[in-house]
Amino acid sequence: MQSTRQQKIEHLIQKDLGDIFLNYTRRLHGTLISVSEVRISPDLSIAHIYLSVFPNERQQEVFELIVEETSKIRGELGRKERFQLRIIPELNFHLDDTLNRLEHIDELLHS
User: Fold this and answer.
1) Which of 24, 36, 43, 103 has fewest C-beta within 10 Å?
2) Is the pLDDT of residue 98 over 80?
């Protein structure tokens, strides 16, 4: 069970990463990146960030770019949250494939 502090930090990170990825979408014309979920460890040192990328054709390419720039993204996050968090957690990015699974289930139901 998560503490209230963990939940508040998850929402804060999700909001700020959403703002950061908004700037990335301006660079990557025609691509939308959204932070679907953030899970943080009980000691607040590791954050698992689940990303949805649209369109699906560019999903792997954009994800690899984000993983390469993880330290830069963490630095931007640190500047945004410098007054709320003492230590910025390590960021682990994951692709959120929930929409793909929903589409697949929908296709199976319609066939």
Assistant:
1) 43
2) no
